[in-house]
Amino acid sequence: MIHQDILQRSMEKAQEVLDISFNLREAGVKADYLQRDDFWQQLVGEQGYMMFHPEVEADLVPEFRDVSKDDIHELEHVYNRLPYGRDQVAHLRFQVAQKLVESINTEHLLQNTVPNKVMSYIEAYCIAIHNDTAKEAKSYRSPKLSKLLVKLFGEKSETVKWYTTKCPKNLDSGLLKEWTITISILPHHIAGMSYYAAANHGGDKWIEGWNGTSCMDTKRNGIGSGVFQLVPSMRDVTMAVAYLSRSEDKDVWNPVYQARALLRVVHIHGEPHFLICRPYFTSRKTRHILIEGLKNAFPNAHYTGDMRSFDGEGVQFRVEYPKNIELEVDKEFVCPDCEGDGFMGYDQYNEPVDCETCHGEGRWHIDDSFLPYIDDHDFIIVNHDEIIFKLPVKYFASKGVDLNRPEKKPKRRFRFFNPLVGRSDVEPEPVQVEELVADIEDIRQELAVREAEVEMDAMEDWLRRAWAYVGADE
Question: Are 182 and 242 in contact (CB under 8 A)?
Fold first, then answer.
């Protein structure tokens, strides 16, 4: 459990983050927090967070994409130049190159293999109606990446030169001491899941998301409705935050997220596993370091991006919340920029100019119920009283986890036999052997005394009857 002083300071910091949003401030929304799942609490301890340097292999994909960018652009240029009816082969070549860039990973580059998605795409064109297209597709069938690159771009292309002379054939993983990954369940790290993005603190924008960060940013989306999901997220007992920062940025009270992902724990057959949800990041490099760093550090970590490559059956696991975590909002807001007028003055032609903040409306009304923020709706469904995980069977089977294994039946309750009270459903308190021997001896002595008393009563009865008989004869 988080130390009380740390939790109180984090709650105060979380309220500061929430109050940055005009909507949250005007609606009087207060920071609220529920104690996290035992797995998270045991992992991070009383301080509420843990830090470590990631150990990862270099990611070759960003460099491959940069090198091949001009060659792919040239293929697109050739395709667009050709008249309709004569562009089928050029179209195929451009499409295969695009598919390759989208689906390739470091392992393909190291092993000189073509991704399965690209091979499937090529095979579909091998039976094309257009003979030239089918012939071209058949020439791409080699599973060796080097041969496909020559076919697509030519031997003298920059892509082929890089792959044959500069691309490493093996990679050694190493500890990246210049980077730090933090896993946290502190309230202000959750409330600031997007506010602490690097772009808000003098750094680079997140290249995916919204407006340089995301819609959960209380600074950049302060009048949006999405930020109301932050409080339910603070109540979500399954959630933690993982963020990547430069090692010199050690201040957990004012962090800078170079990359960030929400984590959610789910117990499978009694064993804890956690999902690494969709990340937000300043570069593909920071994304790679965060995701691979987490996966290498925790064998029970599962990235949703990896899970999506496995089709087929899924199994649901449910987690009940300790209480209703929904946030109800019914509030009308007056625009702070135009003070409810809806316009900001007049232009050079003396025409009224609508307020950009409220789009000329002057006010807005929010009447809705809000639940925790979810990045991966294909795997996670959240309700006011529970969260449901839909997990792919094939993916987890590849990790040695059988989702279809039946749950263990609870053992029959032990029925205790007490010689004084008989059988009982109440389990006895543990006793020391010496105490148990003494109790048994006391019972034996008590039984012996009772037996002696019975014998004495019988003897007295016999003597009474004997004296009565003798007296009768006299």
Answer: yes
